[in-house]
């Protein structure tokens, strides 16, 4: 195509500039999606946490657009306080882990439940079992050898 006037050159230069901007935007979107691939599918809270973690690399507006969440929702999540239930669960998780380690990994959910109840917590054995699974804790029991069999 032959260019005779400066106007045609500037129109082409503008189109090239616009296409370059689109390519950069798509490359940025691809970079974000590559990083989030390990997290998919994910809850809104996980997506918000991802945005928080990567806001130094990409704009919050862009991340929210790519992850399909609202900016207002992200900022509300960021400023929200921890619920009383979440605080209680965090405290109980620490206590369960401590009691498990303090007893050399031998106590399971029944004994840890009893210890927690002695400390004044109202908690079920099932909840303690769930928390132990969540923490990856599993009690082991040493088998006692019968002395009569040894003789």
Automatic annotation (TrEMBL):
The keyword Coiled coil applies. InterPro entries: HTH-like_dom, Transposase_IS3/IS150/IS904. Residues 9-36 form a coiled coil. Keywords: Coiled coil. It holds the Pfam family HTH_21. Residues 90-143 form the HTH-like domain. The keyword Coiled coil applies. This is IS3 family transposase.
């Amino acid at each position: 195509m032959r260019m005779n006037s400066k106007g045609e050159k500037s129109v082409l230069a503008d189109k090239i500039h616009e296409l370059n901007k689109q390519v950069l935007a798509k490359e940025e979107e691809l970079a974000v999606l590559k990083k989030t691939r390990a997290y998919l599918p994910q809850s809104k809270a996980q997506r918000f946490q991802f945005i928080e973690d990567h806001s130094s690399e990409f704009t919050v507006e862009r991340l929210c657009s790519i992850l399909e969440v609202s900016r207002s929702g992200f900022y509300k999540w960021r400023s929200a306080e921890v619920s009383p239930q979440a605080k209680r669960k965090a405290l109980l998780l620490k206590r369960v882990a401590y009691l498990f380690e303090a007893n050399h990994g031998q106590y399971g959910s029944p004994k840890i439940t009893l210890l927690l109840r002695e400390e004044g917590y109202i908690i079920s054995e099932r909840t303690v079992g769930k928390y132990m699974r969540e923490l990856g804790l599993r009690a082991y029991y040493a088998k006692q050898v019968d002395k009569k069999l040894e003789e």
